[in-house]
Amino acid sequence: FNDMAFDALSSLGAAIAGLVILLTGITWIDSAVGLVIAALLVYNTLKILKEAAQILLEGTPKDFSIAEVTQAITGMNKVLSVDDMHVWAIRSGYNALSCHIAIDETELKNSRKIVEAVKAMLLRDHDIQHATIEVELEDCTKHDEHEKH
């Protein structure tokens, strides 16, 4: 929508500049309107480049709180803890998440249902369209497996 509005305003500005030149003979107005349009074009381009760089560098989406999502997941039934969470944008408006969740050993047979419930909550409440969730047993979280790497 913003691109179409910008195109419409640019065309309107050029038309008004042409009308002013036709009625008054002031030709510099065309250059002034052209500079304003060019400045707006550069501004919009920089916004797009910033968003593209964020996606290409797999940065965490803007206004996304990992702490809030961690709290939401650990607040779910049968999830004991969350670690190794990573969140990134695959494309504009399409976010991905990977994490490990710890469950009690007695819930291992229900792990698929627990993961599906977490994924549904992530999509519904946090706009995460793709989630990869690895299930660990409670005792797997008592030490950091990554310390040796």
The outline comes out as: rod-shaped
Give the N-terminus to C-terminus distance in angstroms: 48 Å
How much strand? Answer: 15-25%
Strand order of the largest sheet: 1-2-3
- The CATH topology of the largest domain corresponds to Alpha-Beta Plaits
Number of strands: 3
Uncertain segments are: none
Structural class: alpha+beta
Secondary-structure element series = HHHEEHE
The major pleated sheet works out as: 3 strands, mixed
What's the CATH C level of the largest domain? Alpha Beta
The total number of structural domains is 2
Tally the helices: what do you get?
Answer: 4
Keywords:
single chain; 149 residues; alpha+beta; Alpha-Beta Plaits; 2 domains; 3-stranded mixed sheet
Summarize the structure in short:
This protein has 149 residues and is α+β, with helices and mostly antiparallel strands. Helix content is 52%, strand content 21%.
Description:
- The chain has 149 residues and is an alpha+beta fold.
- It folds into two domains: 2-56, no CATH class; 66-139, 2-Layer Sandwich (Alpha-Beta Plaits), CATH 3.30.70.1350.
- Helix content is 52%, strand content 21%.
- The chain has four helices and three strands.
- It has helices at residues 2-24, 28-56, 66-74, 111-126, and strands at 81-91, 94-103, 128-137.
- Strands 1-2-3 form a three-stranded mixed sheet.
- Strand 1 and strand 2 form a beta hairpin.
- Helix 1 (2-24) runs antiparallel to helix 2.
- The longest helix is centred in the first third of the chain and has 29 residues, at 28-56.
- The protein is rod-shaped, with a radius of gyration of 26 Å.
- The two termini are 48 Å apart.
- The model has no long low-confidence stretch (mean pLDDT 87).
